[in-house]
C-alpha cells in the first residue's frame, strides 16, 4: 500500500469536519477575550473544537425527541452508506493500482510513459472532490455514532427507570 492510501485511510481518524464551535478555557475566571490590548496576558487559552452535532443533539429527554433523532439517523445513514461504498471502492482501486505500480520495471524505454501515467494517478488520488467525500463520510460516521449513542443511552435509562 502506498503512503498516500495509508495516510488517506488514517488522516481523518479522530478528525471531524463540518460546522464547529470553538470553546476556550480561561485562567482563574478571567475571560480569554479582551478588547483592551494592554490587559492581554501571556496566557494562550486552549482551544477545544466541538462538532456541531454535539451541541445540536444533546441528551434525549422524551420519546418525541428520540423519534426525531432516529429519523435524522435513518435519513443520514443512507447518505453515509452511499459515500462509504464509493470511498471503499475508490480506496480498493488505489490499492490495486499501487500494487501494479510497484511491480512495474523502473528502467527502460517505457519508464517515461509510466511516469506520465503515475502523475495522472497521483492527481486522481489528490482529487478535491474525492477528499471532500471522504471528509463528509468521516463526519457522518461520527455524527451517526453520536446520535446512536444518545438513543441507546435514552433507551437504557428508560429501561432502568421502568424496572425501578
TrEMBL record:
InterPro entries in alphabetical order: ELL/occludin, Occludin_ELL
Stated name of the protein: OCEL domain-containing protein
Any one of the GO BP annotations: bicellular tight junction assembly
Source organism of this protein record: Xiphophorus couchianus (Monterrey platyfish)
Taxonomy of the source species: Eukaryota, Metazoa, Chordata, Craniata, Vertebrata
Domain of life: Eukaryota
Boundaries of every OCEL domain copy: 51-159
Cross-referenced Gene3D superfamilies: 6.10.140.340
Family named by the database record: Belongs to the ELL/occludin family.
Pfam annotation, one family: Occludin_ELL
GO cellular component: apical plasma membrane; bicellular tight junction; cytoplasmic vesicle
Amino acid at each position: 500500500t502506498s503512503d498516500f492510501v495509508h495516510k488517506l485511510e488514517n488522516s481523518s481518524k479522530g478528525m471531524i469536519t463540518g460546522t464547529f464551535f470553538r470553546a476556550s478555557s480561561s485562567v482563574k475566571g478571567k475571560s480569554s477575550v479582551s478588547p483592551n490590548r494592554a490587559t492581554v496576558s501571556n496566557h494562550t487559552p486552549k482551544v477545544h473544537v466541538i462538532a456541531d452535532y454535539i451541541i445540536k443533539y444533546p441528551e434525549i429527554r422524551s420519546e418525541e425527541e428520540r423519534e426525531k433523532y432516529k429519523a435524522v439517523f435513518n435519513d443520514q445513514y443512507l447518505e453515509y452508506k452511499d459515500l462509504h461504498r464509493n470511498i471503499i471502492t475508490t480506496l480498493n482501486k488505489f490499492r490495486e493500482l499501487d500494487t501494479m505500480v510497484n511491480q512495474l520495471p523502473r528502467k527502460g524505454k517505457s519508464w517515461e510513459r509510466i511516469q506520465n501515467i503515475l502523475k495522472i494517478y497521483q492527481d486522481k488520488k489528490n482529487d478535491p472532490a474525492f477528499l471532500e467525500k471522504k471528509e463528509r463520510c468521516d463526519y457522518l460516521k461520527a455524527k451517526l455514532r453520536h446520535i446512536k449513542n444518545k438513543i441507546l443511552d435514552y433507551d437504557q435509562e428508560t429501561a432502568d427507570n421502568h424496572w425501578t
